[in-house]
Write a sequence for this structure.
């Protein structure tokens, strides 16, 4: 059967929900990574989620290259600065 691309959106929702649950679990458990390393790991998961939202839900996969670079650069800048604040 040939399904439209939108029928696979539930897989992306499942991926994003899984990342959210993983980040929440990591933050709740604390592990033995230390607060700074744990915060950076959770921010890395947030970056992956942001990348997924930008590419699949904002429709920038087919946008002009300059627009994709600006949006991805903004996401990288924000998460990078937040990660540096935990050093």
């Amino acid at each position: 059967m040939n399904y439209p691309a939108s029928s696979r959106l539930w897989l992306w929702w499942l991926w994003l929900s899984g990342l959210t649950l993983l980040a929440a679990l990591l933050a709740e458990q604390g592990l033995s990574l230390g607060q700074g390393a744990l915060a950076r790991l959770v921010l890395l998961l947030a970056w992956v989620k942001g990348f997924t939202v930008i590419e699949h839900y904002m429709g920038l996969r087919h946008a002009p290259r300059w627009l994709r670079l600006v949006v991805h650069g903004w996401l990288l800048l924000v998460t990078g600065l937040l990660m540096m604040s935990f050093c």
Remarks:
- The chain is about 75% helix and 0% strand.
